[in-house]
Structures are given as C-alpha cells and as structure tokens.
C-alpha cells in the first residue's frame, strides 16, 4: 500500500510538472518556428529571425524597459511599506491592530480595474483642485507605480508577517538589556531574521508588477508596458516576437533561480561547518 501511494504521488508530480511546463515549452517553440503565427503547428522550419525582429521593434523594447522600471520601483516601495506595516502590526494589539490589518488586506480584495480608475481619478482631481500642471498629477508610469503599490505592498506584508511569527521577541529584550539601541536591534537582529521573507516579497512584488494590466491600463498615460503592448497587438495581430521576448525573460528567470539556489546551498554548508567547529 505504501509503494502504491508513493507511485501515485510520483505520477501526480510528473503530471503536474507537465501541466505547468507544457505551455511554456509550446510558447518557447513558437519563437523558433518559421511562421508568422505564434504556434508550433504546423512546423515550418527552424529560425531565429523573430529575435532580430524583436530587437528591431522599438516600441516593444521601450515597453520592456518601462516594465522593468515600473517593476523595480514597485518592488522597492512595496518592500519598504509592506515590511514596515508587518512590523507595526506585529508590535501592537487590540482593535487598532485589527483595523490596520483589515485596511491593508482590503486592497488585495479590490479588483484591479477599480484600483486603476480610482488612482487616476484621485490624482487628476487633486491636480485640478490645486490648479497646477505638475507632472505628478498627470497620468503616467508614476501613477502606475502608486496604483500597483497600493495592493502589492499588502502581499509583502503577509509574507513578512508570517516570518515574524517565528521570531523570538526575547532576543530583542536581551539585546536592549545589554545596551543595544532600538536601531541596532532592528539592523542586527530583526532584519536578518526577516531577510528571507523580504527577498520573497520583493520577488512577488516584481513579478506581480510585470504581469499587471488593469491598473497600468488606466494610469499609464501614453506610455507602454509589455502587458499593454501585447493587448494592443492582439487586435492588430500577434507575431512570434512576443514569444522571443518571453523566451529571454524565462531564461533570465531560470538562471536567477539557479544562482539563488546555489548561493543558498553554499550558505547552508558554511553554517553547518561553523556549527561543527
């Protein structure tokens, strides 16, 4: 019975991996198919011309640069706000904690289209009320960043808050009793404990921003991001240049994941050697 369960688990794992990876393989294959349609059937021959056309497409390249800029900015701001919110919520109790936690979580439950429209209307109305033409009040990528941070920061907060549940508050008290300042406790005790959650939160914020469409569509002004660019190409006709860009992005992601795993294992081996010594 035990062997049957193990075999069933292995079969399930294989089917799950096929279900997850098959679309990526099909999409990657379309980038090398000599066909104007992004598909692998029928296969018309091996080619790399879609990568050349991708580089030659200035609008796509600018959309890619804008997407990276927005994603990096969102990740930085969301990590700062989410981490600070998690530490604050973890340090207070009572009704204030419930209200603050509810306010942060509520942004995740709001549809993205509502956040996008609300962000645009809020800042436009503020600009009209103040009677200024300052760029901050006009639609643009900066409003896309603000709109995305309003709900992505809550995701980071949940990750950091979960990590805080395993933190021993006695370490803070001991450090303070030994003469450490609150800043030193934060920098040398609390933050090192939160680094894994902060890193995971930054990754979640980065990829959530890259795939965002609803908020960006209503706040971007005249700028393009990849999701908006792909949406506009759907009506005009998608070419495999999108697949070529996706292959590059997936390759970078896989390389980054491998490097992270190698670094993590090296750190574990070093920690094990230190404990043995």
Describe the structure.
This protein has eleven helices and no strands. The longest helix has 36 residues, at 241-276. With 277 residues, the chain is mainly alpha-helical.
Briefly characterize the structure.
The chain is an all-alpha fold and 277 residues long.
Q: What structural keywords apply?
A:
277 residues; mainly alpha; MetI-like fold
What Rg, in angstroms, do the CA atoms define? 23 Å
CATH architecture of the domain at 60-242: Orthogonal Bundle
Instruction: Find the CATH superfamily of the domain at 60-242.
Output: MetI-like
What is the number of helices?
A: 11
Shape verdict: globular
Per CATH, the class of the domain at 60-242 reads Mainly Alpha
Which range best describes the helical content: under 10%, 10-25%, 25-40%, 40-55%, 55-70% or over 70%?
over 70%
Strand-residue proportion: under 5%
Blueprint (SSEs and pairs):
Layout (H helix, E strand, L loop, with lengths): L1 H29 L18 H8 L1 H34 L3 H15 L2 H19 L10 H24 L4 H9 L4 H29 L3 H6 L6 H11 L4 H36 L1
């Amino acid at each position: 019975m035990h062997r049957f369960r193990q075999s069933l688990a292995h079969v399930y794992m294989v089917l799950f991996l096929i279900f997850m990876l098959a679309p990526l393989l099909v999409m990657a294959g379309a980038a090398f198919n000599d066909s104007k349609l992004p598909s692998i059937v029928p296969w018309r021959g091996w080619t790399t011309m879609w990568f050349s056309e991708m580089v030659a497409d200035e609008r796509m390249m600018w959309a890619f640069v804008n997407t990276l800029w927005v994603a990096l900015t969102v990740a930085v701001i969301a990590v700062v706000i989410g981490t600070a919110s998690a530490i604050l919520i973890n340090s207070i109790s009572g009704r204030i904690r419930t209200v603050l936690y509810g306010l942060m979580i509520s942004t995740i439950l709001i549809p993205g289209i509502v956040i996008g429209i609300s962000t645009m209307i809020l800042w436009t109305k503020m600009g009209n009320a103040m009677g200024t033409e300052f760029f901050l009040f006009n639609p643009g990528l900066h409003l896309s960043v603000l709109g995305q941070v309003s709900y992505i920061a809550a995701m980071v907060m949940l990750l950091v808050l979960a990590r805080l549940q395993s933190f021993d508050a006695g370490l803070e008290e001991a450090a303070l009793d030994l003469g450490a300042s609150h800043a030193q406790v934060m920098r040398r005790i609390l933050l090192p404990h939160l680094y894994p959650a902060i890193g995971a939160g930054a990754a979640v914020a980065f990829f959530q921003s890259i795939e965002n469409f609803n908020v960006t569509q209503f706040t971007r002004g005249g700028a393009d991001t990849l999701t908006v660019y792909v949406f506009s190409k759907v009506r005009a006709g998608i070419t495999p240049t999108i697949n070529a860009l996706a292959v590059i992005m997936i390759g970078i992601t896989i390389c980054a994941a491998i490097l992270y795993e190698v670094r993590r294992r090296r750190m574990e081996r070093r920690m094990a050697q230190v404990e043995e010594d």
